[in-house]
Design a protein that fits this description.
By secondary structure, the protein is mostly helical. It folds into three domains: 84 residues, Orthogonal Bundle (Annexin V, domain 1); 128 residues, Orthogonal Bundle (Annexin V, domain 1); 82 residues, Flagellar motor switch protein FliG, alpha-alpha superhelical domain (Annexin V, domain 1). Helices cover 67% and strands 0% of the residues. Helix 1 crosses helix 3, helix 8 packs across helix 10 and helix 11 packs across helix 14. The protein starts with 8 loop residues before the first helix and ends in a 15-residue tail after the last helix.
Length: 336
């Protein structure tokens, strides 16, 4: 496709929104005029072979534009935080903001975001565990979980422990790591500020999206080494069964965002108490239809159940990040 400098406005908007993910893009779309939605939508549909350099340029230009168009009397960084938090929720926005502010000209750590999980795992396999932990902390939770699942089984618990124990990274250490990665990805380094990478919450986020069997194994090994740390991470995790701790209004809000097919598949792997909680928060007619559909549905693959449950958990976490509902709980999860 065309060089990044020659991209049209709609194409730049399309690349930016696609880099923010489905949830962020949909929230932004809701605030556009119909003609703008059509224009950006057409640009999204026509985009292909967008390389990481083009994405990096678009995101960097976006950050710089914010710095020149803040009519609110605030700094560009403050404005950027406000805009992205409204679009993505606080946790996800902070992760993205750190990457933008840390690596506007970086091609090292930033380049890892655009690599396939297996390629990242292959690259990291020979690195010191502390470097692996920093890189995993820098990635999005779902990407980090895929990479962690591809690492040697006997290293996973140690890596999660290292991620949870991270308490920020000094600029010179981050610059040194980025410099190592730059030599692999032909980039150029820049100046850095300290970043709140890692910690218990980051570790819990990665554990949340790991395959259930791997997650349970990692947690068991982690607790064998440091039970308190394992318990702290587990308390920050939110799994499907924890939906029983969400209040009725929150459950009703989640159900409005979930398709019937997804709900049926997810409930095939749920215990009776959670099923009753769901039934209670539906109309009598809807709950009766759901019961009938569940009874009529035969055995299903565990992977399909887990996929449906993860989809619902994604909705729940997004709504919690937006302050629409409150979550709570911990836990883990066969052929149903």
């Amino acid at each position: 496709m065309a060089e990044a400098k020659k991209l049209s406005g709609p194409q730049r908007a399309a690349i930016l929104m696609m880099s923010l993910g489905d949830d962020g893009a949909s929230k932004i779309m809701k605030n556009l005029e119909p003609k703008e939605v059509q224009s950006v939508g057409e640009a999204m549909a026509s985009l292909n072979n967008v390389n990481r350099d083009e994405v990096s340029i678009v995101v960097s230009d976006f950050a710089q534009t914010l710095g020149t168009q803040t009519s609110l009397g605030s700094s560009s960084e403050e404005y950027l935080r406000t805009v992205l938090k409204k679009a993505l929720g606080e946790d996800k926005a902070e992760n993205l903001i750190d990457r933008i502010l840390l690596g506007r000209s970086s091609r090292g750590l930033e380049a890892m975001k655009w690599m396939e999980p297996r390629a990242i795992a292959d690259f990291l396999r020979q690195e010191h565990p502390q470097i692996v932990a920093i890189v995993l902390s820098y990635l999005e939770a779902d990407q980090a979980a895929e990479v962690l699942a591809l690492m040697p089984e006997n290293t996973r618990a140690d890596l999660v422990m290292r991620i949870a124990s991270l308490d920020g990274i000094q600029p010179n250490a981050l610059a040194e790591l980025d410099d190592i990665l730059e030599k692999q990805f032909e980039g150029a380094s820049s100046q850095y500020r300290s970043s709140t990478v890692g910690g218990h919450k980051t570790a819990a986020g990665i554990m949340n999206v790991l395959d259930a069997a791997i997650s349970a194994d990692v947690m068991e090994n982690l607790k064998n080494v440091d039970e308190d740390l394992g318990n702290n991470i587990e308390e920050l995790m939110f799994v499907f069964e924890n939906l029983i701790d969400v209040d009725d209004r929150g459950v009703q809000s989640i159900l409005r965002e979930v398709s019937s097919e997804t709900l049926i598949m997810a409930l095939k792997g749920a215990d009776e108490d959670l099923k009753e909680k769901i039934f209670k928060n539906m109309s009598k007619r809807a709950s009766e239809m759901l019961r009938d559909d569940l009874e009529a549905r035969g055995p299903v693959k565990l992977s399909d159940v887990e996929s449906a449950q993860k989809e619902i958990l994604g909705v729940a976490r997004r709504m919690a990040d937006a302050g629409e509902i409150s979550l709570g709980g911990a836990g883990a999860e066969e052929y149903v």
